[in-house]
Amino acid sequence: MVLARTNLTLPKELLHDVDEIAGPRGRSRYVAEAVAARLKRDRLRRAIDAAAGSLIPPGGRPMTRDEVSALVEELRSEETD
Questions:
Q1: Residues 81, 70: Cα–Cα separation, whole Å
Q2: Rounded CA separation 17/25 (Å)
Q3: DSSP for 23-75?
Q4: Rounded CA separation 47/40 (Å)
Q5: pTM
């Protein structure tokens, strides 16, 4: 993995909390993992929004956003069982 240097401005209290968990030497990795997790969640939300109404279950009514989200969560839990 190629790394790139950047500067972030964080609230002082948040930085303190991160350092308590990750330590000042683990800060970059902790923030990178948090950002990666947020990106994954945001991409999933975008896909759910784009697919809302496109799945038609038996009965012929398009699925709502919440129904699509519940289906995705159900499918995810099957992968980890």
A1: 17
A2: 14
A3: -TTSHHHHHHHHHHHHHHHHHHHHHHHHHTTT---TTSPPPPHHHHHHHHHHH
A4: 11
A5: 0.63
C-alpha to C-alpha distances, 38 to 62, 63, 78, nearest whole angstrom? 28, 25, 22
Q: What tokens were used for 23? A: 């330590």
- Residues 18-71 have pLDDT tens digits of 999 999 899 999 999 999 999 998 998 898 888 776 766 667 777 778 887 888
Give, in order, the Cα–Cα distances in Å from 80 to each of 32, 39, 45, 48: 24, 20, 20, 20
Band the pLDDT of 79: cuts 50, 70, 90: low
